[in-house]
Every structure is written in structure tokens, then in C-alpha cells.
């Protein structure tokens, strides 16, 4: 997965601009309130407003090319817009939405899947985290599902990966509160960044972990009984909307690296799945990292370890 510069630049800008976020400035940010489509008294919702396009519940309001003109939109409804007249720098869309409770949030951006020419990407950020999403499994349309611990305003910046804009570069985005996409039996305990600090792991369990800060290392230690044929390590992350591209490094009882798992058997499945033959009682240590050392409070994974019994 490569890293286009566009949203990285915006990300840097956003960090610099954090004190001006709508949630922080008491609502005196021009444009935020007037962008809400249900406010009933704005020019955008006048009687003469054209009907909404198919599968659109609200429309983008320009200008929105900078954080100080970020436009609020409603969760659970499609917001439609276009990368239009952006010049050589492309058209960027600074948006925001507000949660009312803790939980998990999904953000889905549809462009190619709606017939648009745009290769759309987005930056999602809160006061404490940020993630950039380029694509999702087998589509150039990005989607993330992340824990939303912060109740309040989340920023969203949309961009076209090649800075392209014009006729036919439409997009639609929705932010939703969703159920947790995964189950787990225990949560990691930091600091586990060194093998000496490995969290104990029992066969049959599933851990929930966060890759944060960047270049986080999560070490685990697993006792394996005899009578097994193999041990199976299985990550769930990217395939369920996490930004994490996980990797597992497995070490034997002597501390020797025995196997590194990057992905599943199926193409495009970034979530590692690996089996390792193990018939005698022993101990494994293993480390979960992000392949690109990315990390944030949004960067979650689960890892299940199970035994395959000998015939
Ligand atoms: Ca636009
Ligand atoms: Ca714009
Ligand atoms: Ca961690
Ligand atoms: Ca760690």
C-alpha cells in the first residue's frame, strides 16, 4: 500500500490547526451550522432547491477547501458532492460530523462504485487520532470501521488521489455508528513492547489490541500443550475495516524467529493467517506490528490463536 502525499499534507495541516477544530471553538466557525441540510432557513434548502440525486440525502456545500470552512453533515445519511474545479491542486472537502455516544464509527466513501471517475481517499481524525484510507479490499473506494472513544466532533477530509477534478468526479460519503465488528476474550495490556513484557496468551483466546503510538509492538507469550498437530494464528483487522496492515512474527522457545505472517491465503486479504506445525509441549512468543509502522487510537486488531488436534 503506497502513501499519496495529498492527505499527508492535509494531516500535517490539521495537526497544526487543532485548536481551531469546530468542537473546540464554541461554534463561532463560519459555515458549520449553515451547512446542515435540515436547518430549514438556509439558501441551500430554499423551495427552489433541485431534488436530491439518487441515493443522496444531503449535498456538499462549497467552499469547504480549508479547515476554517469545514462543513458539518449528518451521520447515518449519504452526503453527496463532487471534486470540481479544483485546479492543479485538486478539490478538497473539509467536512465534520458529531457523535452523540461512544461506540464504533464506520466511514464509507463511494466514488468508483457509483460510476465516478474519482479515485477517492479520506482522512478521518479526532482530537487524539487520525487515519488515512485509500481503498478497501477489492475497491478503490475506501472504508474504515474504528472505535470512537471520543464523543463529539470528528473531522473528515476528502481528496482525489491524483488531484483530479471536474465533470464525472462525484463522491458520496456516509458516517454511521455501528456495532463492534469483532469479538474478543481479553484486551492487551501495555506496555508490551518488549519480549520481556509479553502478555500471557492462552490457546483458544482472542485478544483485542491497538497499534498506538506509531511503530507499536505488541508481544505475547503462549504455552502450547502436547498432543496438537498445529497452532493457528489468525488476525482480523483490515478485512473488518481497521486501518491496520498487521504482521505476526513467531519465535520459538529459544527466541529464534521461525515464521513471519503477512497476509491470508486469499489475495488482497491483508489479515495474517498462519499455521505452524507443533506436536510437543512448548512455548511460543510472538509479536504483532503494523507492516508500515502506522498507528493511532483507530488502529485496532484482534488475534485468535487456536490448536488443531492431532488425528
Ligand atoms: Ca467539492
Ligand atoms: Ca472543496
Ligand atoms: Ca498495542
Ligand atoms: Ca505495545
Task: Describe this structure as you would to a colleague.
The protein has 2 domains: 174 residues, Jelly Rolls (Sandwich); 124 residues, Jelly Rolls. The longest helix is centred in the first third of the chain and has 13 residues. The two termini are 40 Å apart. The chain is 4% helix and 37% strand. The protein has 1 helix and 20 strands. A 5-stranded mixed sheet has the order 1-3-10-5-8, with no helix packed on it. It has a 5-stranded mixed sheet with strand order 2-4-9-6-7, with helices on one face. The protein has a 5-stranded mixed sheet with strand order 11-13-20-15-18, with no helix packed on it. One calcium ion binds next to strand 3.
Outline of this structure?
With 311 residues, the protein is mainly beta.
Reported CATH architecture of the largest domain: Sandwich
* Secondary-structure class: mainly beta
Low-confidence stretches: 1-6, 11-44
Domains (count): 2
SS strand fraction: 35-45%
Bound molecules: calcium ion
Q: Helices and strands, in N-to-C order?
A: HEEEEEEEEEEEEEEEEEEEE
**Helix percentage range:** under 10%
Mean pLDDT: 86
Gap between N and C termini: 40 Å
What's the CATH class of the largest domain, please?
Mainly Beta
- What is the global morphology? elongated
Cα gyration radius (Å): 22 Å
Question: What's the total count of β strands?
Answer: 20
Main sheet attributes: strand count, strand direction, barrel closure: 5 strands, mixed
Strand order in the largest sheet: 1-3-10-5-8
Amino acid at each position: 500500500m503506497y502513501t499519496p502525499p495529498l492527505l499527508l499534507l492535509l494531516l500535517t495541516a490539521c495537526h497544526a490547526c487543532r485548536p481551531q477544530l469546530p468542537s473546540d471553538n464554541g461554534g463561532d466557525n463560519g459555515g458549520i451550522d449553515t451547512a446542515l441540510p435540515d436547518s430549514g432557513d438556509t439558501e441551500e434548502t430554499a423551495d427552489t432547491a433541485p431534488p436530491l440525486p439518487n441515493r443522496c440525502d444531503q449535498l456538499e456545500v462549497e467552499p469547504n477547501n480549508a479547515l476554517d470552512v469545514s462543513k458539518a453533515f449528518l451521520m447515518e445519511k449519504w452526503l453527496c458532492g463532487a471534486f470540481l474545479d479544483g485546479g492543479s491542486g485538486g478539490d478538497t472537502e473539509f467536512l465534520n460530523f458529531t457523535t452523540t455516544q461512544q461506540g464504533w464509527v464506520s466511514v464509507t466513501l463511494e466514488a468508483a462504485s457509483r460510476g465516478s471517475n474519482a479515485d477517492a481517499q479520506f482522512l478521518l481524525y479526532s482530537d487524539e487520532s487520525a487515519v488515512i484510507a485509500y481503498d478497501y479490499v477489492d475497491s478503490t473506494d475506501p472504508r474504515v470501521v474504528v472505535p470512537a472513544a471520543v464523543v463529539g466532533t470528528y473531522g473528515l477530509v476528502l481528496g482525489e488521489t491524483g488531484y483530479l477534478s471536474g465533470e464525472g468526479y462525484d463522491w458520496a460519503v456516509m458516517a454511521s455508528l455501528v456495532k463492534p465488528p469483532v469479538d474478543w476474550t481479553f484486551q492487551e495490556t501495555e506496555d508490551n513492547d518488549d519480549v520481556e513484557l509479553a502478555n500471557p496468551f492462552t490457546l483458544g483466546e482472542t485478544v483485542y489490541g491497538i497499534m498506538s503510538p506509531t511503530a507499536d509492538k505488541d508481544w505475547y507469550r503462549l504455552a502450547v500443550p502436547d498432543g496438537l498437530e498445529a497452532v493457528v494464528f489468525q488476525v482480523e483487522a483490515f478485512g473488518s475495516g481497521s486501518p491496520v496492515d498487521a504482521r505476526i512474527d513467531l519465535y520459538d522457545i529459544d527466541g529464534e524467529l521461525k515464521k513471519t505472517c503477512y497476509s491470508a491465503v486469499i489475495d488482497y486479504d491483508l489479515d495474517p493467517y498462519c499455521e505452524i506445525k507443533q506436536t510437543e509441549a512448548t512455548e511460543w512468543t510472538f509479536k504483532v506490528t503494523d507492516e508500515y509502522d502506522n498507528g493511532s487510537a483507530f488502529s485496532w486488531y484482534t488475534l485468535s490463536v487456536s490448536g488443531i488436534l492431532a488425528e
